[in-house]
């Protein structure tokens, strides 16, 4: 698919993978719109020609407003990437602060649910578009110490698989992305073991974009760091 002049929304687009995706899509002449909560960081994108709109993914109304702005400016929505997410430092289940875990599920699961709904309503009207959910390899296997985060990502995976079934027979695509560890601000509070071996988010962004450009994109894309040759 030729991406030129397409319209994309990326949630959580000011840092990490979202930022890498936004800058790479821009190079492909895509109309890029990003959202996040920190307004100052959003302003930095203006000079790149990227529209930054303040929106919290846990507030469906924020995302409805975001869509309205996008449709008013561009008239259509080709891609919506549910990327915003947060993490908790690893702890045994008995020690997890489950208030923080609730907040994490609110962002990782409900942020994706709300984003998908807002995009889906518009895409059904148009009868085209792709919803791309950034999940994680933490949705493919349990991790000691990572129970809350894994639970949120397994839930996103279940939601996304159901969404795929609901759009069967339409011109709307739903794509699940399962990246492994990436070196991003996600781990500012505490770096996990093995962080130095994690992938550069630019590498992951390029694979996601190449997949979208292909004639037959993978709808379940696992992206792990390349195995080092000894
Ligand atoms: N890093 C990894 O190793 C890794 C591995 C697999 C999957 N992932 C997934 O990849 C995605 C991106 O992670 P990342 O590593 O790039 O994280 P990051 O560097 O921490 O960036 C997260 C982005 O999300 C935004 N955000 C957080 N909460 C938000 C909210 N409630 N509403 C709107 N925006 C919000 C942040 O901006 P504000 O704080 O200003 O809102 C920021 O732009 C997440 O879904 C994550 O689960 C990450």
Which features characterize this protein?
6 helices, alpha/beta, 41% helix, 230 residues, globular, binds NADP nicotinamide-adenine-dinucleotide phosphate
Gist?
The chain is α/β, with parallel strands linked by helices and 230 residues long.
C-alpha end-to-end distance? 37 Å
How many domains make up the coordinates? 1
Largest sheet: 7 strands, parallel
Q: Total strand count, please?
A: 7
Which residues form runs of ≥5 with pLDDT under 50? Answer: none
Order of helices and strands: EHEHEHEHEHEHE
Helical residue percent?
A: 40-55%
User: Structural class per helix/strand content?
Assistant: alpha/beta
CATH topology heading: Rossmann fold
Number of helices: 6
Q: What is the CA-based Rg, rounded?
A: 17 Å
Indicate the proportion of strand residues. 15-25%
Q: Which compounds are bound in this model?
A: NADP nicotinamide-adenine-dinucleotide phosphate
Q: How would you write the strand order of the largest sheet? A: 3-2-1-4-5-6-7
CATH architecture: 3-Layer(aba) Sandwich
Shape call: globular
- CATH secondary-structure class: Alpha Beta
> CATH homologous superfamily?
NAD(P)-binding Rossmann-like Domain
Describe this structure in words.
With 230 residues, this protein is α/β, with parallel strands linked by helices. The chain contains 6 helices and 7 strands, in the order βαβαβαβαβαβαβ. The protein has helices at residues 16-27, 39-43, 60-74, 98-126, 147-166, 201-213; strands at residues 7-11, 31-36, 51-54, 79-82, 129-134, 172-179, 220-223. It has a 7-stranded parallel sheet with strand order 3-2-1-4-5-6-7, with helices on both faces. Helix 1 (16-27) links the parallel strand 1 and strand 2. The longest helix has 29 residues, at 98-126. The protein is globular and about 50 Å long. The chain starts with 6 loop residues before the first strand and ends in a 7-residue tail after the last strand. The mean pLDDT is 97. Residues 11-18, 35-38, 41, 56-58, 83-86, 107, 111, 134, 136, 179, 181-182, 184-186, 198, 201 line the site of NADP nicotinamide-adenine-dinucleotide phosphate (NAP).
